[in-house]
Automatic annotation (TrEMBL):
The gene is dabA. Part of an energy-coupled inorganic carbon pump. HAMAP family: DabA (MF_01871). Belongs to the inorganic carbon transporter (TC 9.A.2) DabA family. Pfam families: DabA. It comes from Marinobacter salsuginis. This is Probable inorganic carbon transporter subunit DabA.
Length: 817
C-alpha cells in the first residue's frame, strides 16, 4: 500500500456547499426504533419523492441491490398461475409499453440477471491480501464503525460503560478517540500509517468533514450519491442514528446522530483516497461513471412490469372477494336495527379474521375498525423505576401521560418503594455476577436460584394479558403535568368517535378490543404487538378510552357536541391475544349487573370466533389435523416455548387497506390480508376526516407494508437475518447475527418464511376508499406525503364507484374491477 498522499486538493471554495447534499443524504435513510418499542418502518421513506422504479435504480447505483425479487420468483408466479395473462396485459398497458405479452414471456424465459453491484466508494477498491474482492477495507471500516456504535449506544447492557455519561459526548468524538487509540489499526486495515492518519483528523466534526471532502474531491449531486452510498454500507446503524434524531424531534429535542455517523464514514472514505494507488483511483472513477450510465436500467424496468402484474393478480382476487361477499349479504344489512353489541377492533390485518368469524357466530354484533391506540396519544407511566412506555404510533408525539395510581399518594409511594427495592436487588445481583471480581461460586449459586422460575414458566398455561391488573391511572398533560379538564376529555373522546364514524346508533354494550401478542424469550416479540404503536399492546389504551366513555361528565359534554351516548350503553375494554386468539375482558368489577348477560353473550361470541380463527391459522402454522382443544393447547404452548421461532405470523401477507363502512366488506373473506378502517362518507362532508385517515392510518399501513416487502425482497439489507443466530446488542437497541457487529433491522427471516415458502407476498399496498373522487383528490392536493406515495406508485389508490372499482392514475380514474 502507498503512504498517505502528500497533496490535498485545495477545494476550500466548496466547503460552504457541502451542507445541503450532506443533509439530503441523511434524509434518505429511514429511522428505526428500539427492540422494546419496535414499529414497522417503510425503509424507502426517504425516497418517497421519487417514483418507486427510479428509487430502485438509485439503490442499485448506490447500494448495489434491487428492491425487487429475482427473476425466478416471477417465473414461478407465472407458472403457478399467480400471475395470469390478463394481469400481465394490464401491467403492460399501465406502463404504455409497446411490447406484447409474448415478448415479455420470452424475455422472462431467458432468465436475465442484474449486473455486478456498483462500487461507488473507493473503499471497495481495496482487496484482501488474498486477492478476494469480498471484504477488504470497506468491510474493515464498516465493522469498526459498527463496533464503536454498539459500544456508544449501549443502554447499560455492558457492565463496563464505554461512554462518558456527559451529554456533550458525541458519537463522532467517541469514534475518533477509539480509532486513535486502536493499536491494531494499521494491521487490521493493511494500511501502514492508518492510525497516524486518524490522529491527524481535526477534533471538530465540521472541520473534519471539510478536510475529508477536500481530499475526496466529490461535490454537488455526486456528493449526495456518495454520502448515501456510505450510509447504506452501515445501513443498520445509520437507521438507528436516524431514529435517534426522529424521536428527539418528536420530543422537542435536537439530535444529529445521523450526521455524525456520515461524518465518520466520510473520514474513512478520505482515508481510502489518501492511501489509494493511481490504479485504485482510476477504478473508482470507472465505477462512478458506470453508475451515472444506469447500467442495468432495462432489466429493472422489465422486472417492474412483472412486479406490477404480480400485484394486479392480488387485486383481482381482492375485487372478486368483495363482489362475492356483497352478493352473500342479506337484503337488510342491519343498519336500520340497533345491534346487540358493538366491538371496535384495531385495523390490524389479524383483526379482519377475528371480526369475520365473530360476525358469523354472533350475527347480532356490529364490528368496527379503528387505529388500535383508540385515539389516546399517551405515554404510560407504571409504578416503579421504569421509563414511560409510548402507547401510540411512532409517527406521533405523546400529548398526554397516563400515570398509574393505587388511589392515594401513600399507596403509590409504598408501591414505588417496593418495586424500587426489588430492582435494586436485581441490579446488585447482575453487577455481582458480571464484575471481574465475581467468583464461579456466586455465578453458579445465583444461577440455581432461577431454577424454580424456569420450571414454573415452562409449565404455566397460557398468558395473562399484560395490562390486566386493576390499576387506575391519572391522565395528565405531558407538558406541565396538569390534569385534563372536562372539555379537554370531551374533545379527546369526540375525536375518537368521529374518527371511527361512530356518532350514533350505539349498542347496549360497546367493547373496545385492543390486541397484543404474548411470547417468551423472543427479542423480536414487540414486533408481534401492534405494528405501529411502539411494540405495545392496546389494552391500556382501550381501558382508558372505556373509562372516559363511561364518565357521566364526558357524556354530557359529548351531548353538547351532538354525540349522544344512551344511558343504557356500557363500554368495556378487552384485549385480543393474536397468538392464541383468546379475548380477555378487563375491569370486570366495574360492569353493572344489567349488562352481565350481554357481556356473557359477547364473550361466547369471542370464544366461538376464536375456535374458527385458530382453525384458519392452523395451516400456515403447520398444525393441521388437531381437534379444537388440542389446537388451542398447541397455540398456547407456542407462546411459552423458548425454542419456537414462529409463535405467530404477525402481519405477514398484509396487502391492502380499505376505508369504508363495514357493510361494504361484511361477509367478505379477505384472508387476513386487509387493514379495515371504518369510514362513513356521509359523515364527512368537508373531507377533514378522510384527510386525517389518509395522512395517518394509511401512512402507517404503508410503513408496515413496505417493512414486510423489503424484508422479503432485500433481506440482506432490510431484514434482521436468522433469528436463531440473534444476539441482542445495547440492551434494547437491536440485534446482530452471532458475534457480528452490523445492526440488523426489519423482520427476521422466520417472520416471513416458513423454511420452505415465503409467507409474505411482496406487493405494494392497495388502498381502497369509499368516497367521492373530488374529496380524495382534494386530500392529495393538501397532503404532500400522501400525494408522493400515490403519485410515485408506493401505494395503488382506488375508490368504490357506481360502476365498480376505479384506479387513480395521474389525475384520471380508470375502471379496473
Amino acid at each position: 500500500m502507498s503512504g498517505v498522499s502528500e497533496s490535498v486538493p485545495d477545494l476550500g471554495a466548496m466547503t460552504d456547499d457541502w451542507q445541503k447534499p450532506f443533509r439530503q443524504a441523511c434524509e434518505l435513510i429511514a429511522p428505526v426504533w428500539p427492540l422494546d418499542q419496535w414499529i414497522a418502518v417503510n425503509p424507502f421513506w426517504g425516497l418517497r419523492h421519487l417514483p418507486a422504479s427510479r428509487a430502485d435504480q438509485v439503490l442499485g447505483e448506490r447500494g448495489g441491490f434491487s428492491m425487487l425479487m429475482p427473476t425466478e420468483f416471477y417465473r414461478e408466479a407465472w407458472q403457478g398461475g399467480r400471475i395470469r395473462r390478463e394481469d400481465l396485459q394490464a401491467s403492460i398497458a399501465e406502463r404504455g409499453d409497446v411490447q406484447s405479452t409474448a415478448w415479455y414471456l420470452d424475455w422472462l424465459g431467458r432468465a436475465p440477471s442484474t449486473r455486478a453491484p456498483l462500487k461507488s466508494s473507493i473503499l471497495d477498491t481495496y482487496r484482501l491480501a488474498s486477492g478476494d474482492d469480498q471484504g477488504g477495507l470497506a468491510d474493515t471500516a464498516c465493522n469498526q464503525v459498527s463496533r464503536v456504535c454498539g459500544a456508544f449506544f449501549d443502554q447499560r447492557q455492558g457492565r463496563w460503560s464505554a461512554v462518558d455519561d456527559s451529554p456533550e459526548t458525541g458519537l463522532f468524538q467517541f469514534w475518533l478517540e477509539s480509532a486513535r487509540s486502536d493499536l491494531s489499526l494499521d494491521f487490521s486495515t493493511g494500511l501502514k500509517g492508518a492510525r497516524a492518519f486518524f490522529k491527524s483528523v481535526p477534533d471538530k466534526m465540521d472541520q473534519a468533514i471539510s478536510d475529508a471532502l477536500n481530499r475526496i474531491g466529490v461535490f454537488g449531486e455526486e456528493l449526495e450519491a456518495l454520502c448515501h452510498s456510505l450510509l447504506l454500507k452501515v445501513n443498520g446503524w445509520a437507521s438507528w442514528c436516524r431514529g435517534e434524531d426522529w424521536r428527539a424531534g418528536l420530543e422537542g429535542r435536537s439530535s444529529d446522530r445521523c450526521a455524525e455517523i456520515l461524518a465518520i464514514m466520510l473520514v474513512w472514505e478520505s482515508a481510502g483516497v489518501a492511501f489509494a494507488t493511481t490504479a485504485q483511483k482510476d477504478e473508482w472513477q470507472r465505477q462512478r461513471a458506470r453508475a451515472r450510465r444506469n447500467g442495468d436500467h432495462d432489466i429493472r424496468t422489465r422486472l417492474w412490469v412483472w412486479q406490477r402484474a404480480f400485484e394486479i393478480g392480488y387485486q383481482r382476487t381482492l375485487w372478486s372477494a368483495l363482489a362475492a361477499g356483497h352478493e352473500k349479504q342479506p337484503a337488510s344489512d342491519h343498519e336500520s336495527e340497533r345491534p346487540d353489541a358493538q366491538a371496535v377492533f384495531c385495523i390490524d390485518v389479524r383483526s379482519e379474521v377475528m371480526r369475520r368469524h365473530l360476525e358469523e357466530v354472533y350475527p347480532g354484533v356490529q364490528t368496527l375498525g379503528f387505529a388500535g391506540f383508540f385515539g389516546m396519544p399517551i405515554d404510560h407511566q407504571q409504578h416503579g423505576p421504569f421509563a414511560p412506555a409510548r402507547r401510540l404510533p411512532g409517527l406521533l408525539p405523546a400529548s398526554y401521560r397516563l400515570i398509574d395510581t393505587r388511589g392515594s399518594l401513600r399507596e403509590d409511594l409504598a408501591e414505588n418503594r417496593s418495586l424500587d427495592q426489588r430492582e435494586i436487588a436485581r441490579e446488585s445481583v447482575r453487577k455481582a455476577k458480571y464484575t471481574s471480581l465475581s467468583t464461579f461460586t456466586l455465578v453458579e449459586t445465583t444461577g440455581l436460584a432461577w431454577a424454580w422460575k424456569l420450571l414454573k414458566d415452562s409449565l404455566k398455561k397460557g398468558h395473562r394479558a399484560k395490562d390486566e391488573k386493576a390499576v387506575e391511572g391519572r391522565l395528565v398533560h405531558s407538558l406541565g403535568g396538569d390534569p385534563l379538564s372536562d372539555p379537554q376529555k370531551v374533545a379527546l373522546v369526540a375525536n375518537m368517535l368521529r374518527g371511527m364514524s361512530l356518532t350514533n346508533g350505539f349498542a347496549p354494550l360497546l367493547a373496545l378490543v385492543g390486541h397484543g401478542s404474548h411470547t417468551d424469550n423472543n427479542p423480536n416479540q414487540a414486533g408481534l404487538e401492534c405494528g405501529a404503536c411502539g411494540g405495545q399492546s392496546g389494552g391500556v389504551n382501550a381501558r382508558l378510552a372505556a373509562r372516559l366513555l363511561n364518565d357521566p361528565q364526558v357524556r354530557a359534554g359529548l351531548a353538547d357536541e351532538g354525540i349522544r351516548i344512551p344511558d343504557f350503553t356500557w363500554v368495556v375494554a378487552a384485549e385480543h391475544c393474536t397468538a392464541t386468539d383468546k379475548v380477555t375482558i378487563a375491569d370486570r368489577h366495574l360492569i353493572p349487573d344489567s349488562h352481565v348477560q350481554r357481556l356473557a353473550d359477547l364473550e361466547a361470541g369471542f370464544a366461538g370466533a376464536g375456535v374458527r380463527v385458530r382453525k384458519e391459522r392452523a395451516t400456515p402454522l403447520k398444525l393441521n389435523g388437531l381437534d379444537d382443544a388440542n389446537l388451542e393447547e398447541a397455540m398456547e404452548t407456542r407462546t411459552r416455548d423458548w425454542s419456537e421461532v414462529r409463535p405467530e405470523w404477525g402481519l405477514a401477507n398484509n396487502a391492502a387497506i380499505i376505508f369504508a363502512k363495514r357493510n361494504k366488506t361484511r361477509g367478505c373473506d379477505l384472508s387476513g390480508r386487509v387493514f379495515l378502517h371504518d369510514y362513513d362518507p356521509a359523515q364527512d362532508a368537508d373531507g377533514a376526516l378522510l384527510e386525517s385517515l389518509l395522512a395517518a392510518p394509511m401512512v402507517v399501513a404503508n410503513w408496515i407494508n413496505l417493512q414486510y416487502f423489503a424484508s422479503v425482497t432485500v433481506p440482506e439489507v432490510y431484514g434482521a437475518g436468522n433469528k436463531l443466530l440473534h444476539s441482542v446488542v445495547g440492551g434494547n437497541v437491536g440485534v446482530v447475527e452471532g458475534n457480528g457487529a452490523h445492526l440488523r433491522i426489519g423482520l427476521p427471516l422466520q417472520s416471513v418464511h416458513d423454511g420452505t415458502y415465503w409467507r409474505h407476498e411482496p406487493v405494494r399496498l392497495t388502498v381502497l376508499i369509499d368516497a367521492p373522487a373530488d374529496r380524495i383528490e382534494s386530500v392529495l392536493h393538501r397532503q404532500r406525503d400522501v400525494a408522493a406515495l400515490v403519485d410515485n406508485q408506493w401505494v395503488s389508490l382506488h375508490r368504490m364507484a357506481d360502476q365498480g372499482i376505479v384506479r387513480y392514475d395521474n389525475g384520471r380514474w380508470i375502471e379496473v374491477g
